[in-house]
Design a protein that fits this description.
Blueprint lengths: L9 E4 L5 H11 L6 E5 H14 L3 E6 L6 H9 L3 E4 L2 H8 L8 E3 L6 H10 L3 E4 L2 H10 L4 E6 L6 E3 L13 H10 L3 E7 L3 E3 L4 H18 L6 E3 L13 H14 L7 E4 L3 H4 L3 E14 L5 E8 L8 H5 L7 E2 L9 E6 L8 E8 L7 E4 L20 E7 L3 H4 L10 E3 L27 H10 L2
Parallel strand pairs: 1-19, 1-20, 2-19, 3-4, 3-12, 4-5, 6-7, 7-9, 9-11, 11-12, 14-16
Antiparallel strand pairs: 2-13, 8-10, 13-14, 13-18, 15-18, 16-17
Length: 455
């Protein structure tokens, strides 16, 4: 089926340009005045290659809740990544892409009964649990499920701790639950844990893996076919972060506790690792308020932008994230001034940054926020009638030929810069950003701008 919506397609860039230039072209063209995202598909692909090289024994199962943008899911599905789903809605979304049920782990330890029934009807068998009640629900609703006991092992420091809600004690509770499952005739196939989203305590992974080893031994004693270890999430994804230390600790711990000859399947549930740095948000200043002292000295400026706490910046409240504002246009002066950034709604809670220092900016100027791919788009609302920013995806021309034939991606997913006729837009005279030469872009961007203007 031909894809016609801009947000359903991936714009193919010439290798001489990049996602940042595309963003600048859109922002400064006058075509758009609403906030928008640029999604660089190439970043996701590079992250996947990094994962394969640094954690070669660990099969990634992307945490859909982190960012369920359809192009993200389609790209990851094309790369052969598995998926961590937490609800029947997420199951439906992933399975609709043609992903096989055995590439999914239903990693919610406390599932509504209707969701368990739904998983059973779809053939999704792999699922987590951490309490007696869940075992009895599974016994009644999905007795053929392949169960994974989730234990608690919290990082000392993490962006979002999860142990307060999920995970049983590996020593005091897990053995009892495994024996109960055995008495109920249920099948346990492995152990999972989640040290906390955005983990900043890499050694905790070794502790969790060692605890899992003990439960594997108990599982074998009980007659279970224990063959799956799920390392959960916690892998950072911002452009300034690295998983090197976490990977080193995990690889060594796996060698010590689950060496290759044990034939144990190792998976993990990365979310922000794949998408955080792939999304850049562009916002526009629509109003400002200057506060002066009694002697007319500028003390502070309040900038009002067209996205806020109820939109993309919900990540400040729910993901404990600190966004980094970057003026799109470089100031000719090194002087900066005290300011704050506010969202567009009428709620005083809608404050993005309380205290910052930026160059003097004007209404109509753009502020860019990098690393905005994790827990932003899927949690945003249209409170007060303000729209959720649209996402425009781009990919380098050297990458797209390898993607276009990898299901569920097809030729129709790509808008190719050298085929403007396929957009149905005709000729277009470029309007280049102020101070930039047209040969920097080599013509793909005008087609993109015309295409976007239709939306």
């Amino acid at each position: 089926m031909k894809l016609t919506e801009v947000e359903d397609q991936i714009y193919v860039m010439k290798s001489s340009t990049n996602a940042a230039k595309v963003l600048q072209t859109i922002a400064e063209s006058g075509v758009k005045d609403e906030a928008f995202y640029i999604l660089d598909i190439g970043t996701i692909i590079h992250k996947h290659h990094e994962w394969l090289s640094k954690l070669p024994r660990v099969k990634p199962h992307y945490a859909v809740k982190c960012n369920d943008n359809i192009l993200v899911l389609e790209t990851l599905a094309a790369l052969g990544v598995g998926f961590d789903c937490a609800s029947k809605g997420e199951l439906n979304k992933v399975l609709s892409l043609g992903v096989a049920a055995d590439r999914i782990i239903f990693a919610n330890p406390a599932k509504p009964a209707s969701h368990i029934r739904h998983a059973a009807s779809l053939g999704v068998g792999l699922m987590t649990f951490d309490n007696e009640t869940e075992l009895h629900k599974v016994k009644e609703l999905h007795p053929d499920a392949k169960l994974v006991v989730r234990i608690r092992c919290d990082a000392a420091v993490s962006q979002c701790p999860l142990g307060m809600k999920f995970g049983c004690d590996a020593i005091l509770e897990a053995p009892h639950l495994m024996k109960l499952a055995n008495s109920l005739g249920l099948e346990i196939v492995g152990v999972s844990f989640h040290v906390g989203s955005g983990c900043q305590d890499p050694p905790v992974f070794r502790k969790a893996i060692s605890l899992a080893r003990g439960l594997f031994d108990l599982g074998f004693e009980l007659g279970f076919n224990m063959h799956l270890l799920d390392l959960g999430g916690g892998f950072p994804g911002d452009s300034s972060s690295s998983i090197d230390r976490i990977a080193d600790i995990i690889n060594l711990a796996l060698e010590d506790y689950f060496p290759p000859q044990t034939n144990i399947e190792i998976i993990a549930e990365p979310g922000r690792f794949y998408v955080a740095s792939a999304f850049t948000l562009a916002t526009n200043i629509h109003s400002k308020r200057e506060i002066y002292s009694t002697d007319k000295e500028l003390l502070h400026t309040m900038y009002y932008i067209n996205d806020g706490i109820y939109g993309s910046f919900n990540c400040i409240l729910f993901d404990h994230y600190t966004p980094t504002p970057i003026p799109l246009t470089d100031s000719k002066s090194d002087q900066v001034f005290s300011c704050s950034l506010w969202g567009p709604t009428c709620d005083a809670l809608d404050r993005i940054i309380e205290n910052s220092f930026l160059p003097k900016m004007n209404i109509g100027d753009w502020i860019i926020f990098p690393d905005m791919g994790a827990y932003t788009v899927p949690v945003a609302s249209t409170f007060n009638g303000f729209p959720i920013p649209k996402v425009y995806a781009v990919v380098d021309e050297k990458i797209w030929p390898a993607l276009k034939d990898c299901a569920p991606l097809t030729d129709d997913h790509f808008a190719v810069y050298h085929s403007p006729a396929s957009f149905g837009i005709g000729d277009y005279s470029p309007k280049w950003p102020k101070g930039m030469d047209s040969d920097e872009f080599e013509e793909p961007h005008p087609y993109l701008l015309e295409y976007l203007s239709a939306d």
